[in-house]
């Protein structure tokens, strides 16, 4: 009786056992292509009765199209129809996403990194050759008010938020290759999460600072004839006793101002579209506008023709956002250089808001004379009557 039960039990497990062994063996013996075909791709000669996305194939007859055609259409980004509200779900495979991923991981990041390194090297070379630009007549000890509290608050709101955005943004691009190997996964994960949130929220502070600086300083940054002279003399950066006359902002600063405003606006708009995705058609619209004046950007850059899908718009946005951000970082490197180690007495303008009268006379002679003549209350100690 005991024997019988044991034999029946063995028979019960024997069949599934053999079946399982056969399955395993088939898996081991089948050539890899056969496995790939059975798991992912339909066989070459397969036909289907599923209607392919897009216009009916093969003379309008549905049901005789080969699966290969359908798969090719899907593979090439054909958008089908879906019953749910999010119509973008009709896109099963977006091939350009792979191009975008490879670009972002590959040459593009390298170029962005080289651009920043090249700027730092150029500034270091310039510093080595020119040295610190000194106040030639020495400090007078007399101070002249240059920026109000509101101006300095706006500057520092814009500047500190930009620096925060720069550091957190560069972590998206270079963190994985530069920071991760140093601090390890356990730290890099939470740190990147924190920096991502910081980046998103700080963006609003930057936009406010940018708008305030624009309103406060636009009046001093309209180009005029003094700028041409200033540029012709190379801003007096090369050689000594060669300070061309300048108003409150010289031509170099006006270039920085407009660079910051235009790049800042572009980085803000593309950043906004990344924060609130799939709602903006920035590239389709811009390329159409440029197309109207004869500039065919997609043809020049070898991009697919617009209109672009929502996901393509996001991909272009992410590329554009980082290119503009890095261009602005390079510009700001030069700005920070001249505002700190590059020029004696410059930092005070944004630090205390007051600069030395001799500094003002050398670098902004027209502005300094105007203040001395018309607003003596801005000078301390007050000039003797
Ligand atoms: C540590 C960082 C920074 C320092 C030390 C610094 C310093 C200065 C100084 C001293 C000035 C006044 C120059 C003058 O008296 O004429 C200035 C002006 C200005 N700064 Fe900054 N800045 C910094 C970061 C930034 C950043 C990140 C931005 C933009 C995102 C920025 C945008 C501007 C603009 C638009 C002006 C007016 C135009 C000009 O003077 O070039 N600054 N900054």
From TrEMBL:
Q: What Gene3D superfamilies does the database record attribute to this sequence?
A: Transmembrane di-heme cytochromes, Chain C (1.20.950.20)
Q: Which GO terms describe its biological process?
A: anaerobic respiration; formate oxidation; respiratory electron transport chain
Pfam families listed in its UniProt record: Ni_hydr_CYTB
Tell me where in or outside the cell this protein is found: Cell membrane
The cellular component terms of Gene Ontology attached to this UniProt record, alphabetical and capped at eight, are:
formate dehydrogenase complex; plasma membrane
For this UniProt record, the keywords arranged alphabetically read as follows: Cell membrane, Electron transport, Heme, Iron, Membrane, Metal-binding, Transmembrane, Transmembrane helix, Transport
* Membrane-protein topology: Multi-pass membrane protein
Please give the residue ranges the record annotates as the region Disordered.
Answer: 36-64
Mark the transmembrane ranges. Answer: 111-129, 156-179, 199-219, 255-276, 316-338
Q: Does the keyword Heme apply?
A: yes
Question: Listed GO molecular functions?
Answer: electron transfer activity; formate dehydrogenase (NAD+) activity; formate dehydrogenase (quinone) activity; metal ion binding
Q: Where is the composition biased (Polar residues)?
A: 36-50
* Domain Cytochrome b561 bacterial/Ni-hydrogenase span(s) in chain numbering: 146-345
- The question of whether Transmembrane helix is a record keyword is answered with yes
Family note: Belongs to the formate dehydrogenase gamma subunit family.
Name assigned to this protein: Formate dehydrogenase gamma subunit
